[in-house]
Write a structure and sequence with these properties.
This protein has one domain: Thrombin, subunit H. It is built from no helices and eleven strands. The C terminus is likely disordered. Strand 2 and strand 3 form a beta hairpin. By secondary structure, the protein is mainly beta. The strands form two sheets. Strands 1, 2, 3, 4, 7, 8, 9, 10 and 11 form a nine-stranded antiparallel beta sheet that branches. A two-stranded antiparallel ribbon has the order 5-6. The chain is elongated, with a radius of gyration of 19 Å.
Length: 148
């Protein structure tokens, strides 16, 4: 059966890196939660199709503008474990905002450049949820404390 999917996206995010530094130069993010329902027919169901929850997965992307003085490839790399703070709204001094706090593993980091135009050099990173607990509160909106 096709996966049930929820998709979220935003423009503001930061990532707490394994060395306790924070990557702030993220200009966009996506997060996709999916669940594969398992359906079956048995004697118990008298020939009717029954569905049960299957495996769940969360994955997404990060994107930003490449900073030549502090390249993204010097900050994160494939296999790195990070904690993402994916903001639902832009945090300001008067509004601390809501965010999704997601422990993640970086799958890839790619750079793109328009050599003929004036477009800025950009990067994208793909990630998957990386946790040992199935805590559904991890992906729910949380009030933003000071990012420490």
């Amino acid at each position: 059966m096709p996966a049930n999917t929820d998709v979220a996206s935003g423009r503001y995010a930061c990532a707490k890196l394994s060395d306790d530094s924070t990557l702030y130069e993220i200009t966009g993010w996506t997060m996709q939660d999916s669940e594969d329902d398992v359906n079956y027919v048995s004697c118990e169901t008298d020939g009717a199709r029954k569905r049960v929850d299957g495996n769940t997965d969360t994955q997404g992307t990060l994107s930003g503008v490449f900073n030549t003085e502090n390249p993204i490839t010097d900050q994160i790399d494939k296999g790195d474990l990070v904690v993402l703070h994916l903001f639902v709204r832009k945090p300001t001094a008067s509004y601390t905002g809501l965010y999704h706090k997601v422990p993640a593993k970086i799958l890839s980091v790619d750079e793109t450049a328009d050599v003929e135009g004036a477009a800025p050099h950009r990067w994208t990173a793909n990630w998957v949820l990386h946790t040992t607990t199935a805590d559904p509160a991890l992906l729910k909106n949380q009030t933003v404390p000071a990012l420490t």
